[in-house]
Design the sequence.
């Protein structure tokens, strides 16, 4: 079994998610496509890098990502930094012949996303893998929904409705992290969470052709964050602290037209009190409907049009070893998986792509398509009209 020497750049929350996923991947899926070896963790803050080395079991740490790129031992680079550095790091890694998995959104600017897609296309000619971390499309229930659609069980898709609702930034005393700064993040909720459901919508219903949208910012200033750690709303700023401007979006609502002729809607916000990580997808076809709710991610609800009138309605199917990624769902339906197993599934797809040389479904070109939808959404919010993707 081939060893895969791994470096993670950016030692915050997503570093933990990637390490948990990659270390558990061979434990859940055996034989594993590759055997991960945790070589280097990099962070611009020396103390964070050193702590991550010990905590996550890396062989060494560093503070300059260029040292990772220059290291001939590194086979794969995980880019877990703020959005504005995704392009520079990812392109350098691809050009150096290293496989790359990059957190979403792809980049903070559409121009950088395009450069990443071009670099990935060239690297793919040499067998180098690119992947963006759109893990939610890999929930077993969502993959099963895709199978039902591809098998014609739902018929022609008429409509798809998607939501991603969170509340961690609803409090105006949540600190001004980089996620609220356009120069670093690019977009706010649009890039951070709407991108996930844009990806799911296109995975299930095909490419989006045009959009019309409304984007809102509700909290225009926040307390300046004192530490460099992105706390995702788990701490509150001092009410007396200096405040600075927020220049990213808090919420977007959009209508969608798909190239297939289907229509849809999408909502995303980080200001929805009572919602923590609420992702829903409801899809209607000529032969039935599908309903998914991430708060019950081990279930999918299906209704078929040809059920008898007396029995027609949604039935609940629990994902199990009979469904996609059955190894991760343990031994029987109802034993369930969570976010950790989902990241392991994502890392399995990355590892399989490296082992086979076939690009994963969320390669950089797929991610670039998500960015183009987001960019059309932003244009529509200013023009107040439908915008082509």
Sequence:
């Amino acid at each position: 079994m081939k060893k895969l020497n791994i470096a993670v750049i950016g030692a915050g929350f997503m570093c933990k998610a990637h390490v948990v996923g990659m270390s558990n991947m061979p434990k859940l899926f055996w034989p594993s496509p590759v055997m991960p070896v945790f070589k280097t963790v990099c962070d611009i803050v020396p103390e964070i890098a050193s702590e991550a080395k010990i905590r996550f079991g890396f062989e060494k740490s560093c503070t300059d990502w260029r040292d990772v790129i220059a290291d001939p031992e590194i086979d794969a680079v995980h880019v877990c930094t703020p959005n504005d550095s995704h392009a520079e790091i990812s392109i350098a890694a691809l050009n150096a012949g290293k496989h790359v998995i990059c957190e979403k959104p792809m980049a903070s600017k559409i121009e950088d996303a395009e450069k990443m897609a071009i670099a990935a296309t060239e690297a793919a000619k040499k067998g180098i893998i690119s992947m963006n971390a759109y893990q939610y499309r890999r929930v077993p229930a969502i993959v099963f929904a895709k199978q039902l659609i591809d098998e014609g069980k739902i018929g022609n898709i008429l409509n798809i409705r998607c939501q991603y609702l969170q509340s961690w930034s609803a409090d105006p005393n949540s600190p001004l992290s980089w996620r609220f700064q356009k120069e670093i993040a690019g977009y706010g909720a649009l890039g951070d969470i709407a991108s996930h459901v844009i990806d799911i919508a296109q995975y299930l219903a095909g490419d989006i052709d045009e959009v019309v949208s409304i984007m809102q910012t509700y909290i225009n200033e926040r307390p300046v964050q004192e530490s460099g750690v992105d706390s995702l709303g788990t701490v509150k700023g001092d009410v007396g602290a200096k405040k600075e401007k927020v220049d990213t979006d808090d919420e977007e609502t959009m209508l969608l037209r798909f190239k297939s002729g289907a229509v849809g809607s999408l909502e995303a916000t980080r200001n929805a009190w009572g919602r923590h990580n609420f992702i829903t997808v409801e899809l209607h076809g000529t032969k039935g409907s599908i309903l998914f709710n991430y708060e019950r991610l081990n279930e999918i609800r299906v209704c078929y049009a040809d059920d008898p009138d007396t029995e027609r309605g949604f039935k609940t199917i629990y994902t199990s070893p009979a469904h996609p990624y059955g190894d991760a769902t343990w031994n029987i339906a109802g034993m369930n998986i969570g976010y950790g197993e989902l990241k392991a599934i994502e890392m399995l797809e990355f590892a399989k792509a490296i082992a086979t040389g076939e690009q994963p479904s969320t390669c950089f070109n797929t991610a670039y398509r998500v960015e183009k939808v987001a960019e059309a959404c932003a244009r529509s919010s200013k023009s107040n009209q439908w915008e082509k993707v």
Remarks:
- The longest helix spans residues 364-383.
